[in-house]
Amino acid sequence: MDAYATSGWTALADPTRRAIFERLVERPYAVGDLAVGLPVTRPAVSQHLKVLKGAGLVVDRKAGKRRIYRVDPAGLAQLRAELDGFWTKTLAAYKAAVEQPEKGDQ
Amino acid sequence: MDAYATSGWTALADPTRRAIFERLVERPYAVGDLAVGLPVTRPAVSQHLKVLKGAGLVVDRKAGKRRIYRVDPAGLAQLRAELDGFWTKTLAAYKAAVEQPEKGDQ
DNA sequence: CTAACGCGTTAGTGGACGCTTACGCGACAA
DNA sequence: TTGTCGCGTAAGCGTCCACTAACGCGTTAG
Fold first, then answer.
1. pLDDT bucket at B101, cuts 50 / 70 / 90
2. Which domains, from first to last, does chain A contain?
3. What is the distance between the alpha carbons of residues A33 and B5, in angstroms, rounded to a whole number?
4. Residue B29 phi, psi dihedral angles, 5° rounding
5. What is the pLDDT of residues B18-46, one digit of tens each?
6. CA-to-CA distance for B19 and B39, rounded, in angstroms?
7. Which residues in chain A have their CB less than 8 angstroms from residue B25's CB?
8. Among the residues of B1-106, which ranges form H helices?
9. Is the separation of the CB atoms in A16 and A40 below 8 Å?
10. Separation between Cα atoms, residue B92 and residue B96, nearest integer Å
11. B15–A12 C-beta distance less than 8 A
């Protein structure tokens, strides 16, 4: 169920792409509507959506001439799980450092 | 308390930098120890740590000749909060779409 | 059928970025 | 002090990537 073309982290790295994603988080959007208000052209938005789709963060649906994009909860949940793992391990490392301060480093 | 040089998303975008961070999540490391096992040289690791530090994800501490890096829980928590916001809004958008399917798009 | 709309894709370009090599500085040992 | 270790930084280079302009395809309206 995994094996995405690119990582979610890499997909959300670009500021423009993050701005697009933050919009899609609110509600579904068509490509042209997304381009309005963004400092880039519509083709650029289309390319960014392709990356987000490749990372499993968004899905698209045809609606007549237009193409509606929305956030894919599954991809977002996977990122959340990965980050939660970082958080848990960080806290565990802190606890271990408190118990054995002299062995905190190496 | 914010105003980092670069975003946490951008900092964790690079695979090498993510590998470094995943190591630091386990326990604190010195720069040279991090470089061991990574396919890059020590200066490269040092530059990556600079970026991670600029994003508020890690902090450093001098220990004799060596410099110990560890994860900064505050920066990680901020990323987590941002992602949780995405998640909450996504679920809200889904709920709204179910209640008014015909107005899901625009 | 013809025209207009919305979108994806391509080619091309400028700038950002990750990496290495070389160098300089502070810290500890002899 | 002299030598060594660990680290940060500067310079240079190759590569990736975000962006635009131009084009082609499917869809709807007239």
1. low
2. 8-100 (1.10.10.10)
3. 31
4. -140, 150
5. 999 999 999 999 999 999 989 999 999 99
6. 11
7. 86, 89-90, 93
8. 8-11, 15-26, 31-35, 42-54, 73-99
9. yes
10. 6
11. no
